[in-house]
Amino acid sequence: MKRTAVALSAVALLLPLSGCGGSAEAGSGNTVTVTVGYQSKTINTVTAGTLLRSLGSFEQQLNALHDGHTYKVNWQDYATGAPITAQMTAGKIDIGSMGDFPLLINAARGKQLGRPTHLVSVTGYNLRGGLNTVVTAPDSKLDSLDDLRGKKVSTSIGSAADGTLVRALQRAGINPDKGIEKLNQQPAVGASALSAGSTDALSQFVAWPGLLAFQGKAKALYDGAELNLPTFHGVTAREDFAKKRPAVLEAFLKAQAEATDYLHDHPVAAAEKVAKATGLPAEVVYLYNGAHGIATFDPAIKPKLVSALKEDVSILKAAKLTGDVDVDSFVDDQYVRKALGPDYAERLASAPAPAASEVWPKGAAETRTFKSPAELLGYVAKHKDGIRAAYVPDATTGTLWFADKAVWLADGDELLPFVAPGTAKAYVAGHADARVITYAGALERAS
């Protein structure tokens, strides 16, 4: 099943919690208001946020309860997971969605403040870590992680993107605390800093790397999938809310499953809906959420993702953002299992579809899939003025990227795309005849 990041500022986490009184579940008489915190532009949470909201699925599920209550949904949009956690632990938000590292902080803060929360489902994931990318300016001379020594790198401390940066630097033999000058910035601030030249690189989560590359404001330096460690986004709910309103939480999870199925069945329409709601280019949304996109969407809480969550704890502890986190007690799949019934076992056993090359023709309601990057290039060469977007998977990690932004190699008759210079260099090291060519050169060879 196909289709499946979140900046979390350490400073924001330490801000005092809101003290406006009351609780998320409000209303008068038989009216119950359910408050959902989501992140519209963190597009790997759309099945629990932007897309779900636009489809009206949750409201429909609530109307079908017929339990004597009238339900109203209060949708609250945030830029990151930190304020959602703050509002949840203050009793202001019932259900929220965020990335894996913020989820751990959500668990830690909830336990610390006596407002325990639980991971109740997954939205989007990538088993190799491809949802996070390190990018540099388009004209940057930086060519590898090693080139970042002593450089300024912007990220959001406590986010999955920061976790990717830390792990990648460690593997490259660079001390993430002393080997670079790390700037703790919100994604938009970091993007502006990169454009202004006040930072040398930016490590961020979906959809920032793809957006900046699409706009011609950045190029990939490091593909997070090189780590080969899962990264994901999920849904968290307050324990007291889940116990008091289990049918409401199950209604949300049924609606999430409906949104997930819609995304699978109508990937182009889903991308257009999300683009309209967020202001993001639909081509960027599709890069991550499309039929062969970087993310896989599935509500099931897979064991591989839980294991990855446990490995993430050490990164947050080292950054002094949390202490120990009891991941096993945080994960609670009873509600999603009940909501999805017999389908849950099938979803739990499902795996991401193989990566594929894909073209989105202008004016088309569907995309075209090709057996190889070379076949895609051949089509693009013949229809240059009729292409809205062309996507190709990295030859080694499988991470989808824009064809015109990829690093291309020619190895005999093969034309191979790579997201970043590092994966391309690694391939060349094992293939003596392989050499870097331009995108224009790749198109010429394929035509």
Automatic annotation (TrEMBL):
Q: What Pfam families has UniProt attached to this entry?
A: NMT1
Write out the transmembrane intervals: none
Keyword check for Signal, yes or no. Answer: yes
In the record, which residues are listed under signal peptide?
A: 1-26
Residues annotated as domain SsuA/THI5-like: 87-270
Q: Which organism is it from?
A: Streptomyces liliifuscus
Q: Which domain of life is it from?
A: Bacteria
Query: Which controlled-vocabulary keywords does the entry list?
Result: Signal
Recorded protein name is ABC transporter substrate-binding protein
